[in-house]
Amino acid sequence: MLSQIAREVLPEELRSPHIQALIDDLVSTLRAKDGLGIAAPQVSESLRICIVGKPLTVLVNPVLTPIGDETDESYEACLSVPELVGVVRRPQTVRVQALDRYGKSIDMVWTKFRAIVVQHEVDHLNGILYTERATSTSLSDEARAELLPAAEQQAAPAGSKRQTLVIESPGPVGGRQYVVWTFQGTGRVTGLRIQPGGARVTAAWLSGVRFKAKNYPAGAAERHLLGDRVLHVARGEMLRVELEMPRGKRRIVAEADVDFA
Ligand code: NI
């Protein structure tokens, strides 16, 4: 459902009990989850209806037109992609044309926060998750506390610029998987870890160049996937790590430690 293009709501069906109940359901779900926005496909209705919160605005058949060339990056999260946050670059001003829940025309220009939220929600109507647009994703603080062993949650030393980036594999359970980091700054990768243990790193590439071919063991405490090598990375470079996962493993969390210059 989340990868489908949702269909438009017909004028004659907008006032139907079914559609009005769906909108009520979206409103109450958004409030219950304390979310910023929600779209009908997220509650298994493939219809072009979404809601942007704060203040709450119902949009039926929304059409967005970016205004100007200004884009910026910000963090996004999604009720349908639990445990992750990601950095996405989007236009900062959009014209929003839609119908409200009673069929009345809406024509507004939104900037910054609401512009970003409405683009995220309209993406849902087009079968696109923000993770497909994100230049990097990482575990949310709550998910990190829940998923990673205490030993892996150590804070960066005082004064260090080290950051740990986390990516959850989007692939199927078990078998060959890969994770990709796109670096947001210039620095050195000083460690790679794969969780849970039992996965093997079979290859790694930096911006398309394979730099290790041998197999590495992996585990919760593994910090030597790079051997003695320190990888120097520049903004925009991509590190791809290929993994062999044990069958039946539900997820991979791969982390790269980066000392940003
Ligand atoms: Ni979402």
User: How many beta-strand runs?
Assistant: 16
The helix/strand order is: HHEEEEEEEHEHEEEEEEEE
Distance between the termini: 42 Å
Largest sheet: 5 strands, antiparallel
Largest sheet, spatial ordering of strands: 1-2-3-6-7
How much helical structure, as a percent, in the residues?
10-25%
Strand content: 35-45%
By oligomeric state, this entry counts as: single chain
Individual helix count:
4
Q: Mean pLDDT across all residues, rounded?
A: 79
Unique bound compounds: nickel (II) ion
Question: What is the global morphology?
Answer: elongated
Radius of gyration: 21 Å
Unreliable runs:
150-160, 213-225
Classify the secondary structure makeup into a structural class. Answer: alpha+beta
Topology:
Layout: H1 11-14, H2 17-33, E1 37-39, E2 49-52, E3 57-66, E4 71-78, E5 81-91, E6 93-99, E7 105-111, H3 112-125, E8 136-139, H4 141-147, E9 162-168, E10 175-182, E11 187-195, E12 200-206, E13 209-212, E14 231-233, E15 238-245, E16 253-260
Characterize this entry briefly.
The chain is an alpha+beta fold and 261 residues long. It is 16% helix and 41% strand. A hairpin with a 5-residue loop joins strand 6 and strand 7.
Q: Would you give an account of this structure?
A:
- This protein has 261 residues and is α+β, with helices and mostly antiparallel strands.
- Helices cover 16% and strands 41% of the residues.
- It contains four helices and 16 strands.
- A hairpin with a 4-residue loop joins strand 2 (49-52) and strand 3 (57-66).
- The radius of gyration is 21 Å and the shape is elongated.
- The chain starts with 10 loop residues before the first helix and ends with a strand.
- The structure holds nickel (II) ion.
- Residues 78-80, 120, 124 line the site of nickel (II) ion (NI).
